[in-house]
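Exercise 7. Predict the structure of N-acyl homoserine lactonase family protein from Nonomuraea helvata.
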Amino acid sequence: MKVFPLRTGRTKVPFGQFYGGLDGYSMTDFVTDKEHYIWVPIHSYLIEHPQAGPILVDTGISPEQTAHVDYYRGSIMEHVTDVDEYDLPADETMTAQLARHGYRPSDVSTVIITHLHEDHVGSLGLFPDAAVHLGRAEYDARHSKVFGLVPLGFEPSIAPVRHWRPVDFTGAQIGGFDSSADLLGDGLVTLLPTPGHSPGSTSVLVHAGRYRLLLTGDALYTIHHLAVDQVRAIQTGAESLYVDSVRRMQWLRRLVPDVVVLTAHDHTQYGRRVAAELAEGELSEEALAWCRSYERTTFDELYNLNPARLPHHDAA
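Solution. The predicted structure, encoded as tokens:
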């Protein structure tokens, strides 16, 4: 089974959003800090399932969202996000990325949403007839507002969905996770509850034969965020849930050693290399060995980070 990373543009984020969670970086800083930012990729993932066909994990952003003032006009989103937050070249739209692999949006009948933030659901409108799976807690909270102001699900982005499929995690224990959900009943695509970044944030464990891929959405921004006691994103929800989810992913990684971690926004050397190696849908033995070597030189056995790999801001 092949898995392809689909780069759907990039987004500008404050450095502190990704790395300031242990340094007192606040949501006020998030809104007002316009000097210390980084550009990070936005990745969705295309799974080619042997029976179910193409399955999409997240949908990235849409061209409409890059016309920020028009798309978000009159909503709180117009003010808490930047006009130039998104960059989406024509050859990186979801339609263009699918076409590169021989698909049209109408070919996709199954979509998994890791969470409802804008850079993960912006192109949902391309898939109005698909079954859209997401954690039940995320579905139930879709009309809620963070801090009573910012909608978890921006209505114009999620309104096109006709077939919501809320997921209840009632399946087998896997690694550090007490429960799971086998999406198709064949053990190839398994959903895992990783709340914290959002109420029902969900990660996807894909059995690709010689290895498994853990698609974390934003439960981890980068692989370095596994070192949760040293590298932590700011949280809009329950930080204790976020930390617990990361520790469960650490546990999974120890107990299931063939797992390769993939996030949506990993701008590090690791993220760039793995995305490039997966361009043909599979990781070679050489690529797998490189991933293992990177992890060994990045973390100790307790997932403490090598000081040489602590993140630092590079304005360039």
